[in-house]
Amino acid sequence: MILLCILILQVLPFTGAALLFAGSCAFEDSSCGYESDETFLPWTLNEAGHYISVDTSSQGERAVLLSPELQTEEWSCIRLIYQIATSLESLSDPTRLNLYVRQEGESFDCLLWSAKEPSDSWLIASLDLTNRTKKYKIVLEGILGQDKFASIAIFEIKITPGYCIDCDFEENHLCGFRNHWNPNVNWFVGGGNIRNSQSILPRDHTLNSEFGHYMYVDSVYVKHFQEVAQLISPRTSIPMSGCLSFYYQLKQESGIVFTLYIRDTSGFYEEIWKTDGTVNEEWSLAEADFDSPYPVEVIFEVAFNSPKGGYVALDDLSFSPVYCSNQTGLSFNPAEASCNFEEDLCNFYQDRKDGPGWSRVKVKPNVYRTGDHTTGFETLPAYPGECTFEKGECAFTQERRNRSSWHRRRGQTPTSYTGPKGDHTTGVGYYMYIEASNMMYGQKARLTSRSLRGISGKQCLTFFYNMFGAGTGILNVYMKKEGDSEETLLWRRRGEQSITWLRGLIEYGCDTYHQIVFEAIRGVSIRSDIAIDDIVFQAGPCIEMEDMILHSSGYSEDLNEIEY
What we know:
Blueprint: E1 35-36, E2 44-45, E3 52-55, E4 62-66, E5 76-85, E6 96-103, E7 110-115, E8 123-129, E9 136-143, E10 151-161, E11 178-180, E12 188-191, E13 213-218, E14 227-232, E15 240-251, E16 256-264, E17 269-274, E18 280-292, E19 296-304, E20 311-320, H1 334-337, E21 386-387, E22 407-410, E23 430-434, E24 444-448, E25 455-466, E26 474-481, E27 488-494, E28 502-510, E29 514-521, E30 530-539, E31 556-557
């Protein structure tokens, strides 16, 4: 077993202590109410304290750690200090740590973050968590993969009020901010009564004390023109817009360029603030507006022109969802900006100066695609219980993969007079189907979901299917409870149903872990392709029960007609 390397953090007299919400844990002498899911491998609290871990010394591939039941009605930040240790690199099935939020009453967990990069030291992840009214749990899933000597450890979990980008630099983890190393100029922690630089300030801004902390960069070791130091924030994980404020001091003898950027995942920089060059040897407030409907990093960049360029100090970063006071713009709200045009134009309006403008229209669905995008579902999953097959097979698996398996395809199937002309999602995307010409009469293909968590009450499974062709066979949907050898038939259709996509809707209940199986059985001729698309799992009973009445040109069976 690989020994986990515990990074000993430099112990500074950090005087600030952030307010911690329930669910925070340092794993010193207890797990703070975190419990292993007994269905999987156990997490083990280290006898000497400091971390909880799982490794390959136990038989199994997956370990799940559940937090106590939590409820946070305000925006909060989860900071996770973790380590993944492996003996091999570049595996097709790597060791991975996932963090989910499990909301009360939902059978699917919402994935917030995932990491697979091994490290010989502790790493930090920062995740924004929006305010929510329902109770929830944090779910930490360790997947050990193919490595026979892998381990995953969690050193600390901190849940604090506010945004992850907020920081007063009073804690050792520095809120997940990191310095982009440069041989000559770098950001350092200042304060704490440590006299290690000519640019040490008498007081920080947070505590107005010599024991408080801040970040600084100076020009002592500058060797080249425009030497650059960058301090980089954790990447935002959800859409944000508003005002970022911070305090800074600047002393210069020979030109300093102090700039604030946001950088997206493709590496594109956008400047949102720059100092005017005025010397500020007292703490000064700066504010910058930004809109980021996508993940970004905030970068504080300082460029020096000479070794006598001076220094820049930074403290007390704070984000507000309201634009800065000198702006009149409205905060970006994704909910207000969203519209499916089913009822009206929502908050959109038209400028008709250059033409007649846009018109709302209703288009009937056909065999190629649905009329609008909304009722055909979104291409990207809107939540974890949805699969459109646009990016792959989601969490569905097959016992075997050969010519007689389920296949992912776009466009028309190869055999004429059977199968769909296109997918259901967009008409030009992907779906799953069986190619009857590759199968024998009565041969089966089975597509199995990942293990689903049982909940009390009803659950609703919806999907779209196409059973077109004179020799079409059978499409079954089964539920398989974990540990049971028998499967329960939930739904069945037999024979040709329609040239178009039809909607299947199943309401069922299960309070234990289970899987859903889509089974297609080849019919009497090669014209018996069967296809499925847009599978959605939802908590609660099915609402539109009238959609269960599907008009077809062939024979179908209701649940009441099926003998279990």
